[in-house]
Amino acid sequence: MRKFLSLYILTYFFLTSISYSNNHDLYDNFKKAIVDEFLKMKIINIIEANLILNYKRKKKDNIVDVKLLCAESNLPQIETDEIIGLEFENNEKVKMYGFGNDKWLDDTKFNYTLESEYINMSRNYEGKQYTEKINRRTLKIDDFDLYCLIFNHNLDLKKIIKDLYRIHNGKYPIELKL
Fold first, then answer.
1. Which sequence spans correspond to the domains of the chain?
2. CA atoms within a 13 Å half-sphere pointing along the CA-CB vector of 109
3. pTM of the prediction?
4. Per mean pLDDT, which range of 20-34, 77-91, 151-165 is the poorest?
5. In this structure, how many other beta carbons lie within 10 angstroms of the beta carbon of residue 132?
6. In angstroms, rounded to a whole number, what is the distance separating the alpha carbons of residues 83 and 149?
7. Could you tell me the CA-to-CA distances from 152 to 67, 95, 96, 121 in Å, in that order?
8. Could you count the other beta carbons within 10 Å of the beta carbon of residue 71?
9. CA-CA distance, 117 to 139, in Å (whole number)?
10. CB–CB of 80/164 below 8 Å?
11. In contact, 107 and 126? CB cutoff 8 Å
12. Which of 12, 53, 85, 132 has the fewest CB atoms nearer than 10 Å to its CB?
């Protein structure tokens, strides 16, 4: 029985490490694809690209001041029809902004709670309760096909997303080619 239990535990750790490695590789590829697209569109410069690529968040118990850039990803191509930014302002509130369906989404405040596997965000709007979950391991918003990237907190994520929105809607003279 002990041998079986030991074998089970070792197999679990092996499969979990493979899963983590695959998720880590996907995350790095997603990060590189985002940076490449933003560089091509001249939304960021090479210094900002390096800040994004080399950013490593220190592990903390809370996620205050964390910024997430969320986009649809079918690597190696990034879909720019819907981009969302999330900024965790304090231990209770998260600010969301971005665009989808050619419309700018004004700043929206959500309450959030942390669980071991998910970040639960909720908001009451016009009498209805809206909730979203972000998987903490994969950084994927569950109900959508949006994957998130932990963004360097020293960069202005909202400006970057707004510049992308302007290019996407033809308000900047740069032609968008993906």
1. 25-168
2. 6
3. 0.78
4. 20-34
5. 21
6. 11
7. 7, 16, 16, 21
8. 24
9. 10
10. yes
11. no
12. 12
